Automatic annotation (TrEMBL), chain A:
GO biological process, one term: transmembrane transport
Keywords, ordered alphabetically: Cell membrane, Membrane, Transmembrane, Transmembrane helix, Transport
Compartments where found: Cell membrane
CC annotations in GO: plasma membrane
Protein name, as recorded: Sugar ABC transporter permease
Region feature Disordered, mapped onto this chain: 1-48
Cross-referenced InterPro entries: ABC_transporter_permease, MetI-like, MetI-like_sf
Bias type Low complexity, positions: 7-17
Species of provenance: Cellulomonas fimi
Keyword flag Cell membrane: yes
Gene3D superfamilies membership: MetI-like
Membrane topology classification: Multi-pass membrane protein
UniProt similarity note: Belongs to the binding-protein-dependent transport system permease family.
TrEMBL record, chain B:
UniProt keyword list: Cell membrane, Membrane, Transmembrane, Transmembrane helix, Transport
Family: Belongs to the binding-protein-dependent transport system permease family.
Domain ABC transmembrane type-1 positions: 92-283
Protein name stated in the entry: Carbohydrate ABC transporter permease
One GO-annotated biological process of the protein: transmembrane transport
Keyword Nucleus: no
Amino acid sequence: MADDVTARPASAAAETAPIRDGARAVDQAPARSTARAGAGRRRRAGSVSTGTRKRLEIAFFVTPALVLFVLFVVVPVVQAVRYSTFRWNGLGPMDDFVGLKNYANALRDQIFTDAVMNNLTIVVLSIVIQLPLGLAIALLLNRDMWGRSAMRVIIFVPYVLAEVVAGVVWLMLLQPGGMVDAVLESVGLGDLTQLWLGDPEIALYTVMVVLTWKYLGLAVILFLAGLQGVPTDLYEAAQLDGASWWQVQRRITIPLLGPTIRTWAFLSMIGSLQLFDMVWILTKGGPANSTMTMATYLINQGTNRGLYGYASAVAVLLFGISLVLAAFYQFFVLRRDNQDAPKPRKVVAR
Amino acid sequence: MSAPVVTPAPGRPVTLDAPRRRGGNAAGVRNPLVYAAALVVIAATLGPVVYAVLGGFRSNAQLAADPVSLPDPWVTTNFMNVLTSVSFWRFAFNSTVIALVTTVIVAVFGVMAAYPLARYRFKGRETLTTVFTLGLLFPLTVAIIPLFLMLRDLNLTNTFWGVALPQAAFALPMTIVILRPFLMALPQELEEAAMLDGTSRVGFFWRIVLPLSAPGLVTVGVLAFVASWNSYLLPLLILSDPATQTLPLGVATFSSEHAQDTAGVLAFTSLAMIPALVFFLAMEKRIVNGLQGAVKG
């Protein structure tokens, strides 16, 4: 959901859920036998009219959500697939059926394939940069130290700000002669000043820095939650054995944090693939398309140039790429977590 | 659903004001390097925000002369200009209305749908649940083009509904995924007792389920509100009339229209931050718990 990247964690978080939730529902089925027995009793005692009444009740409760969901989620998604097979400018009849030509054109357009590469670069760099930084800060904040709860609030502030607000502030910081340049000059690194967002060679990396600033807080908060799940008696046992603080972190904490880290990396990946807001504010995909992402390309082609059929094909490609990567990740990385659900001790025993 | 993050782990009481040696975590308390690292993190995190606020108190001449410095003298005209402009308050009002409408729709429709999915047994229950959860796979970006065209045909562009309804629809899957296990966890005995007392299942919903699910509803509502408050892509396409635009759109427009007026942009942006920051500080635990709960499932 690129309408705002803040919604992203929520929606992205959820992307893992269908699979996990499905598994959970199956697991719980036998455990709910009491509930089923209760329902059975009612059904036997009831008459036809209670059955009708029950159906009416279900309809009453579910219909509003279902109508809203079908109208604004299911229909547009299906329409996107349909539009993607037409050449259509959004006006007049949609009668120029082109089959898969829009897809072929997109895959042949170097701006689009470069955008895909940019997205993949952002996926990898986000994880490579934010994982060690986030872990270090989470471990730092997990210690008994003065001002710890204040710091936990502070670290999360960038994440809560709207992408647009954060992006505009960074635009001001990064403009030529802005604060970033001034700070570099004041510490004698004036030669390093750049056209941070104007040079195609470095614009993507500048955007990466801003993204790190914006989303590091989420990693820290999630890691901190994971750290709370580490049983304290493990620490005590390690101490009795004379382990140093570093040894404890490396041998106990970080391995036990595995499931949390893997889930966070999944969220981060999905978010990076759908990145729109921050890029749109900072560079609009420029200069020379060097920061173009799939989502900014989509909006460029769709609402800005009126190529609705073509943009829909790009949307379907975006979804397909996300889905394939998500499936791979689920299969190769998260599968371990799904098999033996968070039983930290088991991991240690292995 | 999830442990509040600020609550310390069991066996590690909060000792913020009077840190003292305790167990293995006490080593950090005395280590100046730890505090130095913490200061660097704080500076990097808050630096841009502080720069924006202080920059708003300076003039463009001051900013040009020395980008990094305290305001001298403190200038309030930038802030006064924004605060006395009609458009700023209109943006804030529009954002508030859209976020509130989105939140109410999500919470009401979400808990209503989650109730039968959690506590009725009927054919197709799992199928229906799967339909909603599959919605999680589809980001707004994928549907944005048809959505834009559909809202245009429904004459919903430049209306609050045009933004609130799709936002609520896309927030529903997450809401139902969070609320359904929540409602499932209510003990069966409660329902049986209510039935014995002659309450119908609808009555059970109003008198018992709704009050008991309040914490879950607040979490879901806060997440929906923040997402709506910060959203950009959908309003960008739907709200072209400045009279209906939200704060993020206002900030973006102002910053491109007044590109030369850095101080003015910083003042406008700082003021636009305040509602989100206040809301975050008030609801911090809910937001954090919601996100953590979403990950832990």
